[in-house]
Design brief:
Blueprint: H1 3-11, H2 15-37, H3 40-56, H4 67-103
Length: about 100
């Protein structure tokens, strides 16, 4: 069964069809998220978020597109957001440490 047929079944309320999509792409999606984030926990979180976002937005999926590419684009954006948040947190903590050192 191809992805577009599975998406149609998901839209009709067949949750097992989405499980088939998860089983089909989980491994390759985890590989991609790990290659970006370099942390297994973060990679699993990003992959899970991507699947949840895809499931929640199936109504907006354009059948003229590749489901895999759409799913991976969602995950890619999530990974970049996670990296940005981590960088912001790191910069904030460095500044905070610098201010505490200067105050001491």
């Amino acid at each position: 069964m191809d992805d577009h047929e599975l998406v149609a079944r998901c839209r009709a309320g067949e949750r097992a069809a989405f499980e088939s999509l998860v089983n089909k792409y989980q491994s390759s999606l985890l590989t991609m998220t790990w290659s970006v984030l370099r942390d297994p926990e973060d990679a699993r979180d990003a992959a899970q978020q991507a699947f949840l976002a895809a499931f929640s937005n199936l109504a907006a999926f354009d059948n003229g597109r590749s489901f895999k590419n759409w799913l991976f684009a969602i995950a890619w954006k999530d990974c970049l957001d996670m990296k940005r948040r981590e960088k912001t947190r790191r910069v904030f903590l460095e500044r905070l440490r610098g201010e505490s050192s200067a105050a001491a």
